[in-house]
C-alpha cells in the first residue's frame, strides 16, 4: 500500500494489540480489510482499510522514527547565513 496514513507505536506488542482490536471491532466500525502483521523493511506493522477506503499502517520501528527525525535535524544549521528554504548541509 503506497498511499496511506501511519501511526507509530512503541512496541511490537502494541502493534499486535492494535491488530487484535481491529479484528474485534471490524464489523462495528465497518473496517473493510485488516491485514496480518508482518516484519518488512525494518518495520513491524499491519495495514487496515477504513470505511472511506483510506489505508492505515500501525507500525513499530525499533528506535522510534520520531527520535530519528529529530536527530536528522541536527545535520543542518542556519547560523551560516542560510535563509529558510536554503538550508545547507553541515560539513562532516
Secondary structure layout plus pairing:
Elements: E1 5-8, H1 12-24, E2 33-34, E3 38-40, E4 43-49, E5 55-60, H2 65-73, E6 76-77, E7 88-89
Parallel strand pairs: 1-5
Antiparallel strand pairs: 2-4, 3-4, 4-5, 6-7
Structure description:
The chain has 2 helices and 7 strands; from the N terminus they run βαββββαββ. A hairpin with a 5-residue loop joins β4 and β5 (55-60). Helices cover 24% and strands 28% of the residues. The longest helix is centred in the N-terminal third of the chain and has 13 residues, at 12-24. It is an alpha+beta fold and 92 residues long. The mean pLDDT is 81. The strands form 2 sheets. Strands 1, 2, 3, 4 and 5 form a 5-stranded mixed sheet that branches. It has helices at residues 12-24, 65-73; strands at residues 5-8, 33-34, 38-40, 43-49, 55-60, 76-77, 88-89. The protein is globular.
pLDDT < 50 stretches: none
Largest pleated sheet = 5 strands, mixed
- Listing every helix as H and every strand as E from the N terminus to the C terminus, the arrangement reads EHEEEEHEE
Strand tally is 7
Distance between the termini: 36 Å
Shape: globular
Structural class by SSE content: alpha+beta
The overall pLDDT, averaged over residues, is: 81
Question: How many whole angstroms does the radius of gyration measure?
Answer: 18 Å
Q: Give the helix level as a range of percent.
A: 10-25%
Provide a count of the helices.
2
Strand percent estimate: 25-35%
- Give me the oligomer status: single chain
